[in-house]
Specification:
Elements: H1 3-8, E1 12-20, E2 25-30, E3 33-39, H2 60-73, E4 78-85
Parallel strand pairs: 1-4
Antiparallel strand pairs: 1-2, 2-3
Length: 90
């Protein structure tokens, strides 16, 4: 697991899932910092599986958000999730 994720967790956390439905891109931010950016099909542990320990498995962008939420709650921290559409400019 990357220590950078652990360093981003605060007492109160906000996960933001930004999605561009027109090109199937999604970005996940934690407290304003990008955690994951990719096409919808990139969201599985085989692609960037070292972000969280193996016990936090996910499939898809919502699954990633759920795993990240659980990861934070398991550390005794508060977390809220927001969702927003955006236009990917890649």
């Amino acid at each position: 697991m990357s220590k950078w994720l652990e360093s981003m967790v605060k007492d109160k956390n906000v996960i933001l899932l930004r999605q561009d439905y027109s090109c199937e891109m999604a970005e996940v931010q934690l407290n304003g910092q990008q955690v994951f950016l990719g096409n919808y099909w990139d969201y599985h542990p085989g692609c960037h599986g070292n972000i969280m320990p193996a016990k936090y498995q996910w499939d898809g962008r919502e699954g990633f958000v759920n795993a990240l939420t659980l990861y934070i709650k398991d550390r005794g921290k508060k977390v809220s999730v927001k969702r927003k559409e955006y236009k990917y400019k890649g």
